[in-house]
Q: What sequence folds into this?
């Protein structure tokens, strides 16, 4: 889990880093889209830039691609700087040896599927037979082998997506970049493509950087995730790390929904490696610090899915409180409850077969290991 | 070998080509403007170049000045009101009602544009001249006194110009009405507002910026228009700024500085207009233009639809069919002063026109110039569009302003600047077709760039970027992705440039020489100095030649694309 803590030292593992981004700043006029972002992508790794729209993730990706000129910083690919504001280097996109799948697919409508995929090979002046071979196997890999002579303008969204993918990896680029490639597909297709992408990535085994605003997508396909907000990095870590141990309130809320519980630290009540916070209402909540330092105050993040509700009091343990169900909304996969807890409400998502009614009394429980302490945030200036 | 390759890569590189093309366009546009302004400020010997003394005296009092200014304003205002009214009504009928034959009408609305103000002026001269005009003859035959209409007046000129410019206003206003999201109106109706209230509170405020923009655009065009005012105004000694300028240049001795000063003041006013137009369009378009093509639900107008049908048919008859028939009739008459009868029909005018060397060479020159302008133009303007709207070359914003400059300068004024500019050019191109070619390429920059860039802007940027990510160089991308996708825009621009060049008057009339005649100035010359019937025949030959050339090109283009498509 500790690899999630490379945040402050992006070059710590530069030994096998394939892409290094150092202090990247991208400015449009007066708007700072990216404000000093640093991270490294290891050889063969699938890294995802995750964040809400406008957080700078696509701009960062396009800066790596060479499609967006950064204002300052440095980008190194395979040990060679492709952009450096200090050394005044800026290698044009076509000479960076990367490849990219676009959000709009960018399939050329005036060509056949074959011509689309063959484009990168023809640019590299490959022989006709070799091209036919490579295009054929690339199209087979994305299950579009039968469509080679089809005009690209007559493809469905999912088919265009596959062709775009084949076109992107057919010429064996050193790095694949993905700009929200699944966001234009419907939910079911998206879930299928997600798995296919992950498989393809394992088979081809190339380094890739993936941009998305979809949490599930990021969790499913990434080796590591970079969560971004307002042009800066909020957290870097494995999907497990990001989901279970969010660093701050933003990550906790953006990466799945969470309740935040604030309280005074009571060191004398801590036990079994757990720490205790006392809320304003006087309730003691036990949780884990996950190795993070704690001051006089602290905030726990508790995922809505990790809270439990039951009619009977569970056997005595920490973190059990009687509550009243205020609102109950059935949402298919789960039922979402709002319960009165102290003088506020908590959101709970349960999958229980026997739903509670509004107004009913119940017991709220949560495993202390699921109450994760957030890092102390600098006081707002 | 390597340095050669390096040299070539620089030459074919994006930056070098962009700078070259951008710089060339800047020279084409700014060089004549500089000489125009220089000439306007020349208060010394009018023939001395460069001027020995500078001053503002040319802008001062010329005894006819107030009258000319007043005439210009009256004509422009009248014509603008009428043209915008035509554009608004036709736009509303054809995009918002269930008038019969809507789709066909929409196609036919281009016809008045193809008639051109010159042809319109010739035709309406036959129809509405106070003594000999056909309409006035009928009027007298019915017992009327003197005449019913006089086309050789301000309102006559405005009428002819408005009929032509009405189709331009229609295109602009119709586009606004069509691009309006119908759900905006539906929302108003769902919330309980009636049809009238919806019209007043929702529809009108949404289309007003577009209508205002069209009004200013049309007004600027009217201020600089030339041919109708020349053909209809000159016989009655009625001058607007452009025709007065022409008169100052055509008389002996020519009064260059005065003409230049007139040109500069007109240019300043039009520049302000175009600037205002751009401000309105960029400020007001966000509400209605969402980029999606809506097909608004047409309003069911009941029995009124046949009235509206009549309005549409009436406009097309008056603006396109009647002028064409009139000119055709006049061209087939010995003396086109009588109403159609059994006698007087002849083909002599055509025989005469075809046998005149001057006409033949002028026609041939114009077709040649059209081919040259269109072919060089699409390449040049296509590259410029790409540089302006796609490249990140610093200064591309300035290039956009410069190439759109000619839109704010009447072609006659521009040609005047060119006359001076290229006289002092080291190679002698004055009096040759080359000068006309350069002039056409300059004055039609906005036309070509607007046509191509409207298609270019629809091409998603990522289509080019993905080629870049595949490793393709700039030239390779342009050739394999951008140009093929741009083909409809390029073809449309080619045709527009060809037609516009063959029929150009304002710039040509100043720049033609004895060895470099163009057809439109020849037509005007024939009108004033030979015979009206011959002129009609020439105008018709020109129209038919353009139509024939286009038909041929279409056939070739289709065949070529069929073979090329395999």
A:
């Amino acid at each position: 889990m500790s690899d999630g803590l490379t945040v402050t030292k992006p070059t710590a593992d530069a030994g096998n880093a394939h892409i290094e981004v150092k202090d990247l700043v991208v400015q449009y006029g007066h708007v700072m889209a990216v404000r000093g972002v640093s991270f490294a992508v290891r050889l063969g790794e699938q890294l995802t830039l995750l964040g809400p729209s406008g957080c700078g993730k696509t701009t960062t990706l396009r800066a790596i691609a060479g499609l967006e000129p950064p204002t300052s910083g440095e980008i190194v690919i395979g040990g060679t700087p492709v952009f450096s504001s200090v050394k005044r280097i800026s290698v044009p996109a076509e000479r960076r040896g990367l490849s990219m799948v676009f959000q709009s697919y960018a399939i050329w409508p005036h060509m056949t599927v074959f011509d689309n995929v063959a484009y990168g090979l023809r640019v590299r002046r490959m022989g006709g037979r070799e091209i036919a071979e490579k295009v054929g196997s690339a199209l087979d890999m994305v299950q579009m082998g039968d469509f080679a002579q089809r005009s690209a303008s007559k493809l469905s969204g999912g088919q265009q997506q596959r062709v775009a993918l084949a076109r992107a990896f057919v010429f064996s680029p050193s790095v694949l970049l993905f700009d929200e490639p699944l966001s234009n597909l419907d939910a079911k297709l998206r879930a299928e493509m997600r798995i296919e992408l992950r498989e393809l990535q394992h088979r081809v085994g190339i380094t890739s950087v993936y941009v998305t605003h979809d949490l599930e997508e990021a969790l499913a396909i990434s080796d590591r995730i970079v969560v971004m907000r307002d042009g800066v990095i909020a957290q870097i870590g494995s999907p497990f790390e990001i989901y279970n141990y969010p660093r701050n309130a933003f990550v906790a809320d953006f990466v799945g929904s969470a309740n935040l519980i604030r309280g005074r630290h009571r060191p004398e009540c801590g036990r079994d490696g757990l720490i205790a916070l006392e809320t304003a209402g006087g309730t003691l909540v036990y949780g884990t610090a996950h190795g993070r330092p704690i001051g006089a105050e602290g905030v726990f993040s508790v995922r809505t899915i990790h809270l439990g509700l039951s009619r009977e009091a569970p056997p005595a343990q920490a973190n059990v409180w009687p509550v009243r169900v205020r609102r109950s909304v059935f949402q298919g996969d789960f039922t979402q409850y709002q319960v009165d807890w102290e003088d506020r409400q908590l959101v709970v998502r349960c999958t229980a077969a026997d739903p509670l009614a509004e107004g009913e009394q119940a017991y709220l429980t949560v495993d202390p290991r699921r109450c994760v302490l957030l890092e102390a945030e600098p006081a707002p200036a | 070998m390597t340095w050669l390759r390096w040299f070539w890569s620089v030459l074919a590189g994006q930056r070098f080509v962009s700078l070259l093309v951008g710089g060339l366009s800047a020279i084409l546009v700014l060089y004549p403007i500089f000489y125009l302004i220089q000439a306007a400020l020349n208060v010394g010997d009018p023939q001395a170049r460069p001027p020995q003394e500078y001053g503002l005296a040319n802008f001062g009092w010329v005894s006819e000045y107030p009258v000319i200014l007043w005439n210009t304003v009256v004509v422009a205002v009248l014509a603008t009101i009428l043209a915008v009214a035509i554009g608004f009504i036709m736009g509303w009928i054809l995009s918002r009602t269930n008038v019969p034959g809507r789709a066909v009408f929409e196609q036919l609305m281009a016809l008045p544009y193809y008639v051109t103000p010159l042809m319109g002026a010739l035709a309406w001269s036959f129809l509405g001249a106070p003594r000999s005009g056909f309409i006035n003859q009928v009027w007298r035959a019915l017992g009327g006194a003197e005449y019913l209409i006089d086309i050789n007046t301000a309102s006559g000129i405005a009428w002819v110009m408005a009929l032509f410019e009405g189709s331009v206003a229609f295109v602009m206003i119709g586009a606004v009405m069509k691009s309006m999201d119908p759900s905006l109106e539906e929302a108003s109706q769902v919330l309980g507002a009636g049809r009238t209230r919806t019209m007043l509170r929702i529809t009108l405020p949404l289309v007003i910026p577009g209508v205002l923009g069209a009004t200013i655009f049309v007004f600027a065009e009217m201020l600089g228009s030339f041919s109708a005012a020349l053909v209809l105004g000159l016989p009655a000694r009625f001058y607007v700024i452009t025709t007065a300028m022409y008169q100052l240049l055509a008389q002996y001795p020519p009064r260059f500085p005065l003409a230049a000063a007139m040109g500069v003041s007109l240019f300043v006013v039009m520049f302000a207009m175009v600037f205002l137009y751009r401000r309105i369009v960029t400020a007001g378009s966000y509400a209605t233009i969402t980029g999606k093509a809506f097909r608004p639900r047409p309003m069911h107008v009941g029995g009124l639809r046949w009235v509206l049908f009549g309005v549409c048919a009436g406009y097309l008859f008056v603006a396109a069919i009647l002028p064409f028939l009139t000119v055709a009739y006049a061209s087939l008459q010995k003396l086109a002063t009588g109403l159609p009868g059994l006698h007087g029909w002849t083909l002599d005018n055509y025989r005469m026109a075809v046998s005149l060397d001057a006409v033949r060479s002028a026609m041939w020159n114009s077709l040649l110039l059209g081919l040259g302008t269109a072919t060089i133009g699409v390449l040049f303007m296509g590259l410029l569009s790409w540089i302006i709207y796609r490249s990140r070359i610093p200064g591309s914003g300035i290039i956009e302003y410069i190439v759109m400059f000619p839109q704010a300068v009447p072609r006659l004024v521009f040609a005047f600047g060119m006359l001076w500019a290229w006289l002092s050019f080291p190679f002698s191109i004055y009096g040759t077709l080359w000068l006309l070619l350069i002039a056409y390429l300059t004055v039609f920059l906005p036309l070509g760039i607007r046509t191509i860039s409207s298609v270019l802007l629809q091409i998603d940027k990522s289509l080019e970027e993905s080629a870049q990510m595949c490793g393709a160089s700039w030239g390779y991308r342009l050739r394999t992705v951008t140009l093929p996708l741009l083909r409809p825009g390029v073809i449309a621009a080619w045709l527009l440039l060809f037609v516009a060049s063959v029929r150009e008057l304002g710039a040509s009339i100043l720049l033609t020489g004895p060895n470099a005649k163009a057809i439109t100035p020849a037509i005007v010359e024939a009108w004033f100095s030979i015979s009206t019937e011959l002129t009609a025949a020439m105008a018709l030959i020109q129209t038919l030649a353009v139509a024939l050339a286009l038909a041929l090109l279409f056939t070739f283009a289709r065949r070529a694309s069929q073979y090329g498509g395999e």
In short: Chain B touches chain A at residues 392, 460, 462-463, 465-473, 476, 480-481, 484-485 (CB under 8 Å). Residues 65-346 of chain B form a domain with the MetI-like fold fold (CATH 1.10.3720.10).
